[in-house]
Amino acid sequence: MRQECKCHGMSGSCTVRTCWMRLPTFRTVGDFLKDRFDGASRVVYGNKGSNRASRVELHHLEPENPAHKPPSPHDLVYFEKSPNFCTYSGRTGTAGTAGRSCNSSSPALDGCELLCCGRGYRTRTQRVTERCNCTFHWCCHVSCLNCTNTQVLHECL
After folding, report:
1. Looking at the structure, do residues 92 and 136 belong to the same domain, yes or no?
2. What is the Cα–Cα distance from 70 to 58, expressed in whole angstroms?
3. What pTM did the predictor assign?
4. Tens digit of pLDDT for each residue in 38-58?
């Protein structure tokens, strides 16, 4: 959170100042968390010290890879690897990506290359009839035309 203030007084003389704490924008918080997520490291419980201490104390967490630095209080850490979301698993409850719609021209997360986990995708065309060119007539009536379009759909294998 950050502090914001507003001055009150004649001609902005700031004889009285009102301050409050304000949350950052949603985008700022999201970017901050994404940076932390991308830099997260896997840790294991260290076997140092007394067993009397809480097992989740920070100085008992050690990086899985000894070449990495120990986590700081501001680092994001995890204990277990994420399940493979590419394939179906009833045990972990992941549905996999087979059959998911994807965007063949996108390099982002919705793109077929990433979303289909390198397994490829099938392309099919489909005729779709939708309501279009709708107009509202005074009090309670909307009239539309039916438009038929051909859509190209991509689906993960």
Report:
1. yes
2. 9
3. 0.52
4. 989 899 887 765 555 554 554
